[in-house]
């Protein structure tokens, strides 16, 4: 065994992580022909200084471990090694000239190499010294900590701290990453370093060279589990529960073997990694969740480590661009479900003191299952602890309820799928495939070797096998795990609620059969028996002509008896805000609701009604109208307390108000007013207050525009502002923007073809790389040493193309460094998704970087979706503090917006949202037709927005493609830009200058002939309809508005969408869009 303990493991991984200087590519110009030896010396000095005064400072690395550093470096950059081959010369390889390099300052997108960005300036010695100083001070304090407190992982905690902070410290100083290699400028030095340390996990068992376990853990049926809920909090809790269950499994292996064992999602720049580190530094053991609620107190209790912890948090605050505010910014990040329900680990096969040795796949699966069950129990205990320690009646209700089903909740709702692959066996199979050409094995590995003999390829075949190991593991592990000679697949099981005994089925708990001797399914998930049932009781109050749905008294009494609440009067007043008449909840759905109630003081949005009202609430806050609304409420037969309750963020509502969640229906019942009448009454009060406020129309317009996201640079906005200033648009019209919103938007987005990307099928062709990158390097690079470096670069790329062809690969193989870049891009996208949704006053349900689900107010939904799509692209590069750090994934990202009512069945509407995404948006094909052509110029497939409403059967489609293809003509780019512009501006147009009767007038004209008309004819009818539906009295001003609109629509009229043979023009889709929007805004 090469690694004999945690000290060895920590030293090895630190040496792998820092084997290259962080400013590597910048050093080429400075060091010239001495770069090769000098850059290694610089890396050693950096490592030495970072570890200064720690217990690892003077420790050397044994020869065996030095070899692992070299091997990890080689495997991590497999493609680079093919291009930059420096061994013997054969007809397929070229010796790179000794002492020769290329200085190059551009970072290319790994998917679209024609997209490039110039790196920032070279870091100065002072910059690097500052990084060393920051890291060293923290590591010294961590070293002191492990000497006085017991940490099983000992010195590995020093490494884990360094792993977590290396990038954040660098980027927080505004420093640009260098390239890993200037000859393949598609990934950064950080991608390479983190890839190297991940690869090292395969090299720790000295006996066989390549060893360990590649593991995929998956929680199946995620949509079924997450979407089972009635409240926004139910859905969020399901998602957060899954993220934290999966991450808790990761944590176990991270703390034992190092954070790098997690392959996906990346631990790099990951807020959950920060929480894991802080939990270890604060020695919280299984109390890590308390950082979400009690971070400041935990920091204060840490005494000697207080300043260190605060400094670590500040680095992450800088790179995330979040406010400090008592650390609430970081705590909110931990409340976001950013961890997917699938994770991948690379577990080394080594023995460490005090740690259970994992020798077989059964050992690995058993340990993972144990971790999963333990993680489940910790979450249940955390929720119960937060509720039972709370003093409010609400906490007592849910705490007592949860405690009563604790015995049932000891077992998770379902298990997980576990795929375990033995890396050593896969490596041996790769060698058999490429050396002996065994077809059956090659097919199992997904390789199609075209070699007639092993000698055809000009590099050592064993090294080639090592270069391919990562690609095969990434692309084939799920199928390989099902083949006995490579690994094993472990299927999940649902938690049983019944046992079979004596010829009959019996419940695991008699209380699940407490309803007239029978069981009732949970009304949320339908998969578990209900534990509490709150049946409806319909009442018609005296002198009131409407029905009220309430609870049966005996069911409420039974519930309160279970919870043990003493203050029954208060409890009864709270129940309508927590439960709905007719609800039946099983133990696991009770846990979900208990979870978000336990964290209610830390969540910015708590209910669907919160979402619906969040934009209007922010609008009233900016205008400073809320206080006036509260004061005058009594004059309108309303309560000021209710106005505050409805239009104030949950965290800002005064504690005098006892209602726990915004619930318009419950408030109407409590006020003894019919729900529809209540909504109408509040809306009229808002509009009347607006009209009497004395606000100038142009000022009100500015506030409306800032909410819905119309650019103040747009020509439409400028025109409407002028109309408002001249009182052509009056205050009465603008005040109609205000209402008691009862609708909200469900937004679902998903990256197109992400599966192919993760399998390495969407990387560029080697010929494209050669054509674009080599040419760019020739034109913008600077040779150092031999002037013939460009000739060798040409030959190197040519050799790589031959190797890829010989291996039967269609594109570049997925290397560790490429995977690091891809995973980091997804993590940064997930973080930006949260930021964008929050800016839109929405509620993030989950984001994994590829897919996203969020609830948004109707006012901000369209603009937020456009921003989510634009940020996914990010001009080709993900940035931190405006520093490019990773390639954006240049595929489309399709979206579905569904406007739903707060009284709709949420799970049904989420299902419909996803259905429209999968069956409409992701099936769309966009093209531009000429005046007479039937098949036009192709624009894009998928990458589409579909907009629907629960109140209509209409769906409108629009392309979301960003103009990233430099070969695309200006006409296509203009059309795509105009589509996004008109999407953002339509709500404003309908509020101010356009009548919502456009659809009726349009359909009366075209009748049943719409699908037989060409785009020009349809547009002529549409122009006529527009002209009839401008709401301005002045003909001249109407003409000005129409000229602007004609300028937009005449440019997009030839844009067509086709789904399974059904064609429609952008104009037809826009009419549908108005049809949807007018019932919402």
Automatic annotation (TrEMBL):
Residues 744-924 form the Cas10/Cmr2 second palm domain. Pfam families: Cas10-Cmr2_palm2, Cmr2_N. One of its GO terms (biological process) is defense response to virus. It comes from the Archaea. InterPro entries: Cas10-Cmr2_palm2, Cmr2_N, CRISPR-assoc_Cmr2_N, CRISPR-assoc_prot_Cmr2, Rev_trsase/Diguanyl_cyclase. This is Type III-B CRISPR-associated protein Cas10/Cmr2. Residues 214-381 form the CRISPR-associated protein Cmr2 N-terminal domain. GO terms for molecular function: nucleotide binding. Keywords: Antiviral defense, Nucleotide-binding. The gene is cas10.
